[in-house]
Design a protein that fits this description.
It is a single chain. By secondary structure, this protein is an alpha/beta fold. The protein has a six-stranded parallel beta sheet with strand order 2-1-3-4-5-6, sandwiched between helices. The protein has a six-stranded parallel beta sheet with strand order 9-8-7-10-11-12, sandwiched between helices.
């Protein structure tokens, strides 16, 4: 069935056209209104986008600034922490000894007690001269022990040890800051760079170990820091099997062993010459390692070179069986810092000693019992020598009591115990 097209009258068509015109006008009006609304929406969107963008950029900037601040604080905190240990391929040791060079005092103040600790077990050590020490050696050790070092290069090793978090000990048995520049040795230590290096060691080392109470007092006063003092030792096992050479006849023997001491003998040589004149062939003098000027060529005087290893030396000293040993020492800032080495050696070897009445010997000698103290003058030495020469019973009494006292005060076990307790802390 075909649908018929409806016919529209002219009047109705006019109404329709008017309505469409109105609608179009209305549509234009509506469109214009919508267009104004869209502009406002777009502005609002721009503002919203700008806010979001700004907020995002602020967040990013804050994140970056916060990261930078955190990184800076982290680095500062890391710098304040002890550095991580440097890996080492060397076997670990409890102590690395950095030596300024070998002298007899190395045997006395380091090797003897360290060997005693090693023999007990649970302790290991290595000794190297300062010019051969490497960073890896330092990294492998728990404690670094510097002995008599004054070279600037050795001071750099101390700084490396601290950088690696190591414990440092500075062992000094002479007052290098007060040594007179009147000899080659004195001029060496009085070099300005070495003096400054010595001061830095005394300032920076965790522990300063001294071998004389007076040296400790000097360092404490000048550097306002504590020091550790305990006496060095004698290894009596080296001496117990050694017999004193018997002497049935011949002159009484007065001896001295040591290095050059020209200034110390200035007051003593005149007294010795007087003794030779007065007693003649009844007395003789033996010198090991040093012959005082003014005695060369005189009768009844012999001289023997030093330089042998310490064990051989100390055993030979006991065998000589001197009747009297002399230890002259004037009172100066430098000398007062010296160790009581002569007292230990003479006493351990059963030699009655005459000592200058100085701070080095005074605390250890009970006058007339384990030694004989004299004023450090020509008259003092002359009178003291005469008294000891003329009194064999006094000499024997001093000989016996001196050795007994030395075994009590200067035993190797006591010294090793002190190192373990006061230095290594276990």
């Amino acid at each position: 069935m075909t649908r018929k097209k409806r016919k529209t009258s002219g009047a109705r068509r006019r109404v329709y056209r008017i309505a469409r015109k109105k609608f179009r006008r209305s549509g234009v009006i509506v469109a214009r209104r919508k267009s104004r609304s869209s502009v406002g929406n777009r502005a609002e969107g721009i503002r919203r986008n700008a806010f979001q963008t700004g907020r995002h950029e602020g967040f990013e900037r804050g994140r970056r600034d916060g990261y930078a601040l955190g990184l800076e604080r982290g680095r500062a905190a890391a710098a304040a922490q002890p550095p991580a240990p440097t890996p080492s391929l060397l076997p670990p040791v409890d102590a690395l000894v950095v030596s300024a060079g070998y002298i007899a005092s190395m045997d006395i103040i380091i090797i003897q007690p360290f060997e005693a600790l090693r023999r007990r077990g649970g302790f290991s050590y290595a000794i190297h001269e300062e010019g051969t020490v490497t960073r890896e050696m330092i990294a492998a050790a728990h404690t670094i022990v510097f002995v008599r070092n004054v070279e600037p290069a050795a001071l750099e090793l101390l700084k490396v040890a601290h950088e690696l978090g190591k414990r440092t000990i500075y062992v000094i048995d002479d007052n290098f800051l007060e040594i007179p520049p009147t000899s080659e040795v004195g001029r060496y230590y009085r070099d300005p760079e070495r003096q400054e290096a010595c001061r830095q060691f005394l300032t920076l080392a965790h522990i300063v170990k001294v071998d004389a109470p007076e040296l400790g007092s000097y360092i404490e006063a000048v550097f306002n820091r504590p020091t550790m003092y305990f006496s060095a030792s004698v290894d009596f096992e080296w001496l117990d099997g050694v017999e004193r050479l018997p002497r049935q006849s011949g002159p009484l023997v007065i001896g001295y062993e040591g290095t050059s001491k020209e200034e110390e003998f200035a007051a003593v040589v005149p007294a010795l010459r007087r003794i030779l004149r007065y007693y003649g062939g009844f007395v003789s003098f033996e010198f090991i390692g040093y012959m005082p000027p003014g005695l060369e060529g005189l009768p009844n005087i012999t001289y023997t070179e030093g330089g042998v290893d310490y064990r051989t030396f100390i055993r030979s000293l006991k065998q000589r069986a001197w009747d009297i040993g002399i230890a002259p020492l004037s009172t100066t800032l430098f000398n007062n810092g010296k160790t009581n080495n002569k007292l230990r050696e003479y006493s351990a070897c059963g030699i009655p000693g005459i000592y200058s009445d100085s701070p080095v010997y005074r605390p250890w000698v009970t006058h007339g019992e384990n030694g004989y103290l004299v004023p450090h003058t020509e008259e003092g030495w002359y009178a003291g020598l005469c008294t000891m020469i003329d009194n064999p019973d006094l000499r024997e009494q001093i000989r016996i009591q001196a050795e007994t006292k030395a075994r009590e005060l200067f035993s190797l076990d006591n010294c090793a115990d002190a190192w373990r307790e006061h230095i290594f802390g276990h």
